[in-house]
Amino acid sequence: MMKFKFAFICLSLAMSATPAMATTLKLGPDVELIVVDGRKVPASLLKGAGSLELNGGDHQLLFRVSKTIDVRKGVKDVFHSNGLIATFNTHNQGAITIHLPDLSTPKLRKQFKQKAHYQLVGDKNQPIPATTDRITLTDADLNGDIEKKMVDYNSAAHPASVPSLTTLPPSQPVTQPANEGNAEPLTPAADKTDPFILMQYWFQKADQKTRQRFLQWAASKNGQ
């Protein structure tokens, strides 16, 4: 059985400093990251971030491709792939990129949805070993308990299942930034559906630029 190291992850831009033993997962504009190592990632906090930092070890991602396409002149739509699961190890990799194939035509997009072909590419622009699978994602899944869906997936011995993620991973404590005084470390509430606690948890993992961008986004939504 693979020994799984739970992620300590923080959002970052491509130019932000990388901690020792961390691997930068580069996020292309068409990659919608949904779950990392059993934990849902708030889409609003990831919005505009160029990368995600993972600690050394084994990781599991759930993501989908969300690509704006031209339906006809002056009309655009968004192509969504199935849910894509990848399990891999970050050993000896400073950066990993999700490399997507050409999706410029309806035929190519249909083929990708039927049998997704993509690669995880490492430092030397070479594919790294990864086990992949795909699952159907509905709006109900995305708006509901997607973490439970991943627990069910990992419990069923699918190709990219991770036995260590058959229960929700323990919360990772997050220390308040030094300038916030004696605040207590924060962990997600036992009620993992509490959006306020979850947003606090992920917000405190973000770098300063990403926090500022999120606050600007939140301010723009206020009153809508």
From TrEMBL:
Pfam family, one: DUF2057
The keyword NAD is assigned to this record: no
Key words, A-Z: Signal
Residues of the signal peptide: 1-22
Disordered, as annotated region: 161-190
Comp. bias intervals (Polar residues): 163-179
Listed InterPro entries: UPF0319
Family: Belongs to the UPF0319 family.
NCBIfam families: PRK03641.1
Name of the protein this chain belongs to: Uncharacterized protein
Organism field: Lonsdalea britannica
